[in-house]
Amino acid sequence: MGTQQGKALVTGASSGIGAAYAARLAAEGWDTVLVARRQHRLDDLAARLREETGTAVETLVSDLSDPHGLARVAERAGQGDIGFLLNNAGINGYGPFAELESALMAKVLHVNVLAVTTLTHAVVPVMLRQGRGTVVNVASQLAFAGALPPHPLPERAVYGGTKGYVVTFTRTLAAELAASPLRLQVLCPGLTATEFHRSRGEEPVGGREESVHEDGGMPVGQVIDASLAALEDGRTVCVPGLADPTPVDDLAAAELAVRVAVSAGRR
Predict the structure, then answer these.
(1) Residues 6+ positions from 178 with CB-CB distance below 8 Å
(2) 183-187 and 237-238 as β-strands: parallel, antiparallel, unpaired?
(3) Which one from 21, 94, 159, 165 is the annotated catalytic residue?
(4) Which residues lie closer than 8 Å to 188 by C-beta, 6 or more apart?
(5) Are 16 and 1 in contact (CB under 8 A)?
(6) Which residues does residue 95 pair with via DSSP β-bridges, in sequence order?
(7) What is the pTM assigned to this prediction?
(8) Res 2: pLDDT
(9) How far apart are CA 189 and CA 215, in angstroms?
(10) What pLDDT is recorded for position 266?
């Protein structure tokens, strides 16, 4: 598949959903380009994928909150051989908005919004020319929790806002490209058994071995199962654990109702 469909570029590939998704794609025959901040984690994963799957693996150490780092990854993404883009990198910056450090706020916006948009923009024109391609942007169930107060949910105004952007961006782009052969998905996992909550994002979690935050959550493999199943079914919005997609359909219907009501009020 890697030869026929191009390579899979995975950001945030040093742990969690990114590492597990990259492994799943490699097991299906995709050659991969792994992007993350932690060189040793990428090297370990690359060696394992080469040994277990026989696929080709590139590593690209980059901080997507840094303009130069993002530019390097965007240049690689646009070279014409990427058939699957997983925009998984993300940081949370949790905490009271009034106390949020400006530098961390900017980092959250750069990684969660600018990097997702830039890398998608780098691959979509090429995918359209080639007549194939898949983009999966990882958001969060917190994108749908704007009106809910914190506790037990985190204090998350900026993080939730960025993930709301990813949902709207991906859905709108999918509608724009509906007549094309491209597949677009926004993946909205809830609490997942990764190390995501062990860092606010200023620095990555240390150590060579992956760990899981104390909160636990859905096993990573189930998140990936849901994503791949949704891609096969042609569903743009994937919420792992949501057996009945009716709430997502109801969301689209509510949006339409708002627009229709506003138009009616103008008459």
Answers:
(1) none
(2) parallel
(3) 159
(4) 139, 140, 141, 143, 144, 163, 167, 237, 238, 239, 240
(5) no
(6) none
(7) 0.95
(8) 43
(9) 14
(10) 76
Q: Among candidates 41, 4, 39, which has minimal Cα distance to 20?
A: 41
Q: Note the pLDDT tens digit of each residue in 153-203.
A: 999 999 999 999 999 999 999 999 999 999 999 999 999 999 898 889 788
Do the Cβ atoms of 19 and 223 come closer than 8 Å? no
Active site residue 159: yes
| DSSP string covering 92-149 | ---S-GGG--HHHHHHHHIIIIIHHHHHHHHHHHHHHHHT--EEEEE--GGGG-TTSP
In 3D, which of 239, 224, 169, 182 has the Cα closest to residue 5? 182
Q: What contacts 228, CB < 8 A, 6 or more positions away? A: 24
**Could you tell me which of 153, 72, 85 has the C-alpha nearest to residue 116?**
85
* β strands within 133-244, DSSP E: 134-138, 183-187, 237-238
Kindly provide the b/e burial profile for residues 123-158, where b requires at least 16 CB atoms within 10 angstroms of the residue's own CB: bbebbeebebbbbbbbbbbbbbbeeeeeeeebbbbb
Distance, in Å, from the CA atom of 181 to the CA atom of 22, rounded to the nearest integer, reads: 23
Separation between Cα atoms, residue 67 and residue 174, nearest integer Å = 26
Tokens of 128: 């359209």
**Rounded distance between C-alpha atoms, residue 119 and residue 14, angstroms:** 18
Q: How many CA atoms lie within 13 A of 84 on its CB side?
A: 26
